[in-house]
Amino acid sequence: MIKKGIRRQIVLHYFIVVFSALLLAEVIFLLAIRTYYYDSIYSHIKNHIDNVEDYYYQRINPGLDGNRDLASMLTYYDLNSANVQILDTQGNVLINSSEFQPDMSVKTADISQALSGNVGRWVGRQASTGENVMAVSKLEQSSGQDGYIVRYVTSLETVNDKLFNLTMLATGVGAAVLAIVLVFSMGLANSIVQPLNTITAVSAEMARGKFNQRIKGDYKYELGELASTLNYMAQEIVRSNQVKDDFISSISHELRTPLTSIKGWSETINSGGYDPEETRIGMEIITKETERLIGLVEEILDFSKLQQNEMKIAIGRVDIKELLQEIMLNLWTKAESRQIELRLKSEDRPLVAGDANRLKQVFLNLVDNAIKFSHEHSAIDLVVYYEGDNVVTEVRDTGIGISEDHLVKVRDRFFQVDPLNGGTGLGLAISQQLVELHKGILLIQSTLGEGTTIVVSLPRLPENTALTDGAPELPPAGEKLS
User: Fold this and answer.
1) What CA–CA distance (Å, rounded) separates 387 from 478?
2) What are 83-92's pLDDT values in tens digits?
3) What are the Cα distances from residue 479, in Å, to 389, 468, 475, 482?
4) CA distance 17 to 181
5) 78: Cα within 13 Å, side-chain hemisphere
6) CB-based contact 122:42 (threshold 8 Å)
């Protein structure tokens, strides 16, 4: 007995389908064979009656004027393997080719059919002998008389024996086919269930945290896709865990540096015996490192809000050119310290609908990254132009660039191209999601050693559009805001 499961369902379904198809085919086949044999017997007798009729009445006895010799008729109607009877129209047997004479009149269906002008046919069990027979009857009319019924009765025992043998043969063939199907379906079920059991076992190990486990085997079709998906999932989990560990290590370092400075200068100032200049320097360092800590915490909080879809944006009219000018002023000192030139080229009044603070956060991060990864004595270009119904902003640098391997991961959370430069690895991930909240698109184009271009496309806002607190939802990129 096959235990419950997919194997049992496959075998059972295959068996039921094939059994039903075989049963239907065999029933149709046997009925067709039976009909063929019975129709052949009936046609043979009917043709014999027609031939005898033509020969007897037209050549042998054309002038009897209906006065027939029953014995002569019986002789001419005689047929091997069939009993011939001459009956009157009441069904009484007048003469019989066999020695047995029935005691009663014949009332079977072939008599009534013959009396109605047809060649009657009846198949059934003969009461006197108990054997299966076929009776074929026809009314022979004669002028001035009621006529006679010529009736043939032939045994079907031999035919039924052949049909029984065919039935046994068909049953044996069907049983053999079912046995083959059973073996085949079990093999098919095993080819599916065994890989599933393997996949299930490995998945259970993964569920226990053993993500180094992999599904081995060259599985095809959907099973192969399932195995590849689970292996990829485990690989991604391992990678995510590694990224998380790297992030924890990185953020710990990022937090420790300012905290160490704050703690050291706090202890120095607390100890006394210091001059005002030293105090001023210490307070500046404490303030700077505190702001740095606040920035790190805010970045993590923003990322958490975006992940939980809790980030709210206040829609208003934003002039991208003014926004970039403000960012250039904020980062001018940092760029100047590395002798990097910030250059802005913009269309007049490039307006978009968005949250000015969040868009500033996006471009501030992009320009800051450009400065961080650019060479000294280089330039960063901020280019704003219209493209259809969108305002496109490009941040171009000629810095170190990003390799193809890193380019596909650079927007992943916690990923850092160069961990030595510091940061949480969340900046681009947050920028990507903020741009998407504004129904925009963020693209990164980079060549290692030649520089990077980051493209931000936002839906353009016509100048005469009025925005209120109840402003409609932002349209997707490429559509106008109505």
Assistant:
1) 9
2) 898 888 888 8
3) 6, 20, 6, 9
4) 10
5) 9
6) no
